[in-house]
């Protein structure tokens, strides 16, 4: 490859990335992927004493990002409460301690995010009860 051709290719890539960043889109993250992962599926959700919460879900899949690299966020009543660690298995589990849930009923959902920043639709919902200490 000639030096001038290499320079032109480098400039083209740099301009494309700059345009994507200026537009607020992920720049070549996962190859320009715009398809979100499938929605995770809640299989277990339970509120416990002192506002603790345990959530389990079936993993999402994505057209580009490997399953082990998907990120999961748990929501209570539509508000994010924290990530669910993905260990690359077919199921993802999260345990939130110490006053994550206030006393009373809460609706739990989960979303998955791929490497390009695409968010899945919300999972099915689960209703849990938070208990005071």
Can you describe what's shown?
It is built from one helix and seven strands, in the order H-E-E-E-E-E-E-E. The protein is an alpha+beta fold and 133 residues long. It has two domains: 1-32; 34-130, Immunoglobulin-like (Sandwich). Strands 4-3-6-7 form a four-stranded antiparallel beta sheet, with no helix packed on it. The longest helix is centred in the first third of the chain and has 20 residues, at 3-22. The radius of gyration is 20 Å and the shape is elongated. It starts with a helix and ends with a strand.
SSE inventory with pairings:
Layout: H1 3-22, E1 41-47, E2 53-58, E3 71-76, E4 79-84, E5 91-96, E6 104-113, E7 126-130
Antiparallel strand pairs: 1-2, 2-5, 3-4, 3-6, 6-7
Compact summary:
This protein has 133 residues and is an alpha+beta fold. The protein has 2 domains: 1-32; 34-130, Immunoglobulins (Immunoglobulin-like), CATH 2.60.40.
First and last CA, distance: 69 Å
CATH topology group of the largest domain: Immunoglobulin-like
Overall average pLDDT = 83
Order of helices and strands: HEEEEEEE
- What CATH first level of the largest domain would be assigned? Mainly Beta
- Strand count, sense and closure of the main sheet? 4 strands, antiparallel
Total domains:
2
Secondary structure: number of strands: 7
Strand content: 25-35%
**Helical amount:** 10-25%
Please identify the structural class as seen in this structure. Answer: alpha+beta
- Tell me the radius of gyration: 20 Å
Number of helices: 1
CATH superfamily of the largest domain: Immunoglobulins
Task: Tell me the quaternary state.
Answer: single chain
In the predicted model, the low-confidence regions spanning at least 5 consecutive residues are 2-30
Identify the strand order in the major beta sheet: 4-3-6-7
- Name the shape in a single word: elongated
What is the name of the CATH architecture of the largest domain?
Sandwich
